[in-house]
Specification:
The chain is mainly β. It is 7% helix and 38% strand. The longest helix has 14 residues.
Length: 387
């Protein structure tokens, strides 16, 4: 049995113990079996594993781009576009530079706009040292850019404006790397004794073309913060970052982390644990039309009835600030492969439909992981949570 399977069994056993159940604090809605909500963007086969997607919504509220890799942390190459908010998808692989297929591990895609109003679509990938491709014509054509040269485990997990509401081309990018005790930074994911994961931040002032030297913004003794999800508070005065904690195998050490900045990322609060209800891996979220927040992630909270599956959380920004459980959780998709899922794309269409997509072992067939989306309106979840 592999190490990961032993880890999975240990977490399940912790949940069965009964004293770690936390989701009783809020309702847990289940829409995972409502298959009419599902859209398979890229189907797995017995030979092909579709993994680790990321998406971006364009300003029209209906055009979406999605990128992912083949195999777990494997080569990039696939890209798809939807022009109807994610109901149907067209593959764009042949439009991409051939070299893109040699990049590896978890591509992520962003729309960045410079001070003159020109938009660029960027895709960054982890290896070798954060290479990228860029489009200046809305995704019609793409060209390769030189790697940023940043040692990393994974490329940018989130990029946010440095000054929300201001079109100045300035953005903050967050990612993770691995370092050893003497601060030597490791490339990729080598398992090195005494190494730790750190969350990094870099800045661009020209919509992604050049970046400042990255700085460490989260390094927590005894923990491995990673996969940062950064977003602005509703009033635009504070940045919150949710982080996966990758070291603990169960119990308290399994809780996710969060930190805050009130000076545009210059200084940060000491990372603290999130609520159990927000505990998971690779948070990605969005503001809902009513002002609340929705986050999707892989559930890793011990004792959770949805442990290992693709789940969502609905609550307010203040809930996160104060460590409160929020309004409710929702099981979005069931994982048929333990906890190998949950790198999401999340967006809201112009009609107000929330779309959450992930890679997941979708059924019990011999097929490997697929990229799958589920669609819902938050009013539907609200109603279900009241029953």
């Amino acid at each position: 049995m592999t190490k990961n399977r032993w880890l999975w069994l240990s977490i399940v056993c912790c949940g069965m113990a009964g004293n770690l159940v936390s989701q009783d604090n809020v309702p847990c809605v289940d829409i995972s079996q409502e298959k009419e909500r599902h859209v398979v963007i890229a189907a797995g086969t017995p030979e092909v594993y579709q993994g680790h997607p990321y998406s971006v919504m364009m300003p029209d509220g209906q055009t979406v781009f999605c990128v992912w890799c083949v195999n777990h942390g494997g080569p990039a190459g696939p890209m798809a576009r939807s022009v109807d908010g994610g109901k149907t998808w067209t593959r764009l692989d042949e439009r991409l530079p051939e070299v893109y297929k040699t990049f590896k591990n978890c591509p992520s895609i962003y729309r960045l706009v410079n001070a003159d109003g020109q938009e660029f679509l960027w895709v960054w990938v982890a290896q070798p040292r954060m290479p990228s491709i860029v489009s200046a014509d809305g995704g019609e054509t793409w060209r390769e850019q030189k790697p940023l040269g940043f040692p990393n485990v994974m490329a940018f997990s989130t990029i946010i404006p440095e000054n929300p509401g201001v079109r100045d081309g300035k953005y903050l990018g967050f990612y993770l790397h691995r370092a050893v005790v003497d601060c030597e930074v490791m490339d990729g994911e080598p398992r090195v004794k005494n190494a730790c994961l750190q969350v990094m931040m870099a800045k661009t002032e020209d919509a992604g073309w050049t970046w400042s030297p990255p700085v460490v913004v989260a390094s927590v003794p005894g923990k491995d913060p990673c996969e940062p999800c950064a977003f602005w508070s509703p009033d635009g005065k504070e940045i919150c970052v949710l982080m996966r904690e990758n070291r603990g195998a169960g119990g308290e050490k399994r809780r996710a982390l969060q930190m805050f900045s009130r000076d545009h990322g210059h200084t940060w609060s000491t990372p603290v644990e999130t609520s159990w209800e927000l505990t998971g891996h690779r948070h990605i979220g969005t503001y809902l039309p009513d002002g609340r927040l929705f986050f999707a992630f892989r559930d890793t909270a011990p004792g959770s009835p949805t442990l290992g599956s693709f789940v969502g959380w609905v609550g307010s920004y203040e809930d996160i600030q104060k460590g409160r459980p929020g309004d409710y959780r929702v099981k979005l998709l069931h994982s048929h492969a333990g906890w190998d899922c949950g790198y999401p794309g999340v967006y809201v269409t112009k009609e107000g439909t929330v779309v959450a997509l992930t890679y997941i072992k979708y059924d019990e067939s011999p097929n490997k992981h697929s990229v799958v989306a589920t669609r819902f309106r938050v009013e539907e979840l609200d109603a279900k949570s009241q029953k």
